[in-house]
Design brief:
- The chain has 453 residues and is of the alpha/beta class.
- The protein has three domains: 60 residues; 116 residues, Aspartate Aminotransferase, domain 1; 251 residues, Type I PLP-dependent aspartate aminotransferase-like (Major domain) (Aspartate Aminotransferase, domain 2), CATH 3.40.640.
- Helix content is 41%, strand content 17%.
- A seven-stranded mixed sheet has the order 5-11-10-9-8-6-7, with helices on both faces.
- Helix 3 packs across helix 4, helix 15 packs across helix 16 and helix 17 packs parallel to helix 19.
- 40% of the residues are buried.
């Protein structure tokens, strides 16, 4: 039998063909040659789909060339219904944050220059005032993510000494990373107390010794326990820490700055609530419910923050000017909470009335139906994501695409010019509008139409 792959052209042969040689006018020979190799390799792997003539080979090479030039990290439409989707970059930034990044990135800035005194300043100063105002903390510092914030806090306050933590709070976070492993890298010695489902004040009291430097409380952000359970509140631990002269660190996680109970999302504490308990340090994320860039925010006692600033690890974990610009602009929105709920995309998506989400879904369905695409609007349940409000189910609406082959439909959307990331349930592909910022509605419709045409 003849193997079809024996008939594939050579790299040199394709490069000398008229149809492929024309590509050299717009791209370097090395780039075209690499694209030719990719096209041939694809044909070798699937001979049935191999190009059949010169024009088809030129098109295959052109496609490979475009793919090579396309940036790997690119925008997608998050139509999954999970608002803070870690795999999709978590919180979209507010417009003011994007503008702040552009302003700072296009030239020089006073990142570490004090304009009033005319001398070197601190990059952290640009966010400290707003963080202290919004959380009522004495001082603040920003590093590159929440895990880094926890490591820095423990390394500073408890390196070589004991840090007490409840067994019920030794959780695993995204990517398979586990809080106890992260804590151990700080150089602190973990002392586990209580059991998985029940920990009492007496357990902490029994564990406090001369070598105890800190008590750590970890917010159960990505799961919930029910039934025969008991834990110790942060306020109780803060009081115990003051009584015994031990620092209390709270891994708060979500970064929530305003109460979302009026919008049906209850059970998540705010950063101000945490600080008011008297915890020594509170660490949280900038790109979850705060709705800003990835950052690890630490707020708390002035003396403890001063020690963090003096730790050499702070230099290794520091954030760049773009993060500082985006975080500062996002925090400024929170000075008017009603404005924050509208202009911080994560909050706007989470708090939008379901009737409004359904109306947007109807508009998308109408555009698809006008082009003969089988689509209906269906009620769904969305989620917060990002390890926040783990049990919350938010009423939402999605456009359901009826198709004989849902896998093929999902793939076509995922491979669109701007990929549309969906979910499949009940034999249909769902485009959930809850996790799509409203400013993207028109471009989403255009992309879906092009992908399914």
């Amino acid at each position: 039998m003849t193997d079809a792959r024996r008939g594939l052209p050579s790299v040199g042969g394709l490069l000398e063909s008229d149809s492929v040689r024309a590509l050299l006018a717009s791209a370097p020979r090395t780039a075209v040659a690499a694209a030719v190799r990719i096209a041939i390799d694809r044909a070798r792997q699937d001979p049935r789909s191999a190009p059949r003539n010169g024009d088809e080979w030129a098109e295959a090479v052109r496609g490979a060339l475009a793919a090579r030039e396309r940036l790997s990290l690119r925008p997608v439409f998050n139509a999954t219904g999970i608002v803070l989707h870690t795999n999709l970059g978590r919180a979209p930034l507010p417009d003011v944050a994007l503008a702040a990044i552009r302003d700072v990135a296009t030239g020089y800035s006073n990142l570490e220059y004090d304009l009033d005194r005319g001398e070197r300043g601190s990059r952290y100063a640009h966010c400290v005032e707003a963080l202290c105002e919004l959380t009522e903390a004495e001082d603040a510092i920003v590093v590159n993510n929440c895990a880094a914030a926890l490591v820095l806090a423990l390394n500073t306050l408890a390196e070589g000494r004991d840090a007490i933590v409840s067994r019920g709070e030794l959780i695993e976070i995204g990517g398979g990373f586990r809080v106890p492993d992260i804590m151990a890298k700080s150089g602190a010695r973990l002392v586990e107390v209580g059991t998985t489902n029940r920990t009492r004040v007496a357990d902490y009291l029994a564990a406090i010794a001369e070598q105890t430097a800190a008590i750590v409380k970890v917010h159960l952000s990505n799961f919930a326990m029910a039934g025969f359970v008991a834990d110790v509140s942060l306020a109780e631990l803060a009081a115990l820490g003051r009584e015994r002269g031990v620092a209390v660190l709270y891994d708060f996680g979500s970064g929530l700055l305003i109460n979302l109970e009026p919008y049906g999302l209850a059970g998540e504490p705010t950063a101000r609530d945490a600080v008011r308990t008297g915890a020594t340090l509170v660490v949280m994320s900038g790109d979850k419910l705060l709705g800003g860039p990835q950052a690890g925010i630490i707020v708390g006692a002035r003396e403890a923050i001063a020690r963090l600033r003096a730790n050499p690890l702070t230099r290794a974990l520091r954030v760049d000017k773009l993060t500082i610009a985006a975080l500062g602009a996002t925090l400024a929105l929170y000075r008017d909470q009603s404005r924050a709920v509208v202009e911080v995309p994560a909050l706007a998506m989470l708090t939008a009335p379901v009737a409004h989400v359904r109306k947007r879904a109807e508009r998308l369905r109408g555009r698809l139906a006008a082009r003969g695409i089988d689509a209906t609007v269906t009620d769904t349940e969305a989620g917060v994501g990002g390890g926040a409000f783990p049990t919350a189910r938010i009423p939402s609406a999605a456009v359901a695409l009826g198709a004989s082959d849902t896998a093929a439909t999902e793939q076509r959307l995922r491979r669109a010019g701007t990929p549309v990331i969906t979910r499949t349930a009940g034999g249909v592909v769902l485009i959930d509008l809850r996790s799509i910022p409203e400013r993207e509605d028109e471009s989403l419709a255009d992309t879906v139409l092009a992908a399914l045409a």
